[in-house]
Model the fold of this input.
Amino acid sequence: MIIQEKIAQLLERRSTQLPKVSQEITRWEKLAKDVNALNDVVVELRNYSATPDALKLELQGFKSDEILRDIAKVSELLHILEARFSRKTINIGVSGRARVGKSTLLQSISGLSDEQIPTGSGLPVTAVRSRIFHSHLHQRATLTLHTYQSFRDEILQPYHDELGLLAPPFSVRDFQVFSYPQSESELDPLYRDKHTSVSILRRLKEMQDALSSFEQDLTGGERSVGLADLRQYVAYPTNEQVAAGHCSRRYLAVKDVRIECSFPYAQVDHVGIIDLPGLGELAANAEQYHLAGLQNEVDLVLLIKRPVEGLAYWGREDGATTNLLDKARGFINNRRDFVFIVLNSSGNNTPLEISLRDDVCRQVNDGIDGKHFQVLQGNAADPKSVYDTILEPVLAHLALRLPIMDDEIYEGTIRSFVAVANKIGHHLSNLEAMLKLAGKPSSSTSEDLEFRSSELRRDLAGELAQVVERYQGFARSGDDDPEYIKAVEDSFTTIEKWMENGFGVGPEVWSKNALRQMRVDRNSSPFTAQEMNRIRVEIGKHFCNLDLFFTSKVNQLWSETALVFEKNFGLLLEDKKGVEALNTLANALSDAYESCPNLTVAIKDFINLKLEYRTQLHPRVRRELDGLNLQIIDKESGKYHDQIVVEVSESGVGELLKFLTQIAQQAAYRTKKSLIQERSTPALVLHAAIEQFEDSIIRSGDSEKEFRRLSRSYRNEIWPGVFQGIEETNAKFAKVEKALRTIRNSLSAMNGVSQ
Done:
């Protein structure tokens, strides 16, 4: 149970680390897009006719392919890490050459039989990598099937590459009639190899001959099958079937199989056993295939050896296998953490057993038990022995060491992508140096642009000052604004009609509802208080209709101000008007390749100007509605008392309606009067806004500098047709520089990246 708890905690720990990995994957995916965008603008600059020839030659040296390959390697490592941390199980891989008892061991752990995990003493029998998971709930197998396209890419293509053949056929029918060499002698001499080419060619032709047996399975997707029917999808044909000819090879359509069953001796949930067929066998591209499976799905590997005649020693193939496992180990520091060597023996210390155990100790561990690899010994055919001598020690080891291995893999992945990020930074520095040397505008163009920038600022200053003076006049005159007075009067008239209409429901309905509620309460006060609150809120809400007037005034100010920019900014605002023109200008300033932060903020603040009844005027006139409360303070005694209490009757309701109408009319009138007295407030607010805006645009500390930046960024848009040739080249330079900055910003967010 202690191991069970530790493994559960470990899986939870992994899940908490997953968001960090996902974030890094997103960063690197964006970086790849940014590098592609940079390559596009570099090609555009290189192909532009006005770009200096010397720079064109230099730009040919910028190779985005190398950067993208490095990014792809980082992404692959991160996806491996993501797959590791996403798994809900601890996975143990089982590998070994044919006839060492690997399938027998898997049967003992899982409780499955030859119908699901075939065994045999002759030819290799397991053809598909199986993933077997301990489950109390299910007894089932799920096949992941190839399409013809994936079968072609993942199986046929490696065989064709191994033999130097042309590309594999693009359809099932073409594969069926494809003409393969009849013998090794027909192969290109570069690809003839007496050790492998004959066997690989034979296997390729066996696939073609057996096409009819698995063609119907090339559907892609998943398929559930009963455990009793599984063997035909995962096993090679038997010797007898091969001898009979035209045997079925349905396993060729199967990418992967997931088996769920109850392990007979498992004391730990969330355990998976991954069968790794083919290690030490002859297969095209087998090493890459198994390496991918090990990196993505396995936390530890059991390498099976068996003391049988001719194999009771540590041979060259075993060394090659451990080298492959070292690649799968990746950033895990210690080999002994990732690989256990399992000696499949009866434990009777037969001469062969002793010979194998001693040779493994000498060849693998330098004569010291456990120095490089931990070695276990058990009888693969005995489920209890397998659990006691193999599975339990392995699970205990994982419970202790897997958090350390996880950390080593995470930290190694981080080190890798920091190194790649720094390498990318070096490429960017080289490109920046090229642009710096070649991207200088002519002095006359620079002087002309600086003069135009200065004149633009002066023109804007003069025209904005006129707008400021106009609104200053409105604010200081004190004259009534007929539009404002009308807006207030219209709101008041609407309120009066609402009150005369029985406060929005009609006098009869209001009186009926009032009497019913007063009878429920046996008191007029609760209803009176509720209605006074409603009337007070409604009056305030009706005066909020002034916001339509205020909105029109703000839009008018925006339009007048935008007109100044429209007249002076050439094509930059693209015939936009009013607030749309101001928004376009703000976006242009924000996107400028030379930043203009103060001008950007000034425009955005001005666009966010709000003139509202709720914020500017309601707080000033709110006191006029205070009379719309049931309880008021007696001026003489200083105590609260109800303004009105009426009899619970129809006459009392009539009296209450008359009273409420009167005080509501008085409150609305007083509010209207106060609002008219505040008639200068809108003009003051608008004047203050345009004055602050004009000050920020023209006289801020960085105004002159940012106008020069704006002019350099958009000179062709502001003064269309004035600058030619080098300006267009510089615009393309600017695209490259902006793309470079985007990538620099992404790299700067990665810890440890030197800039």
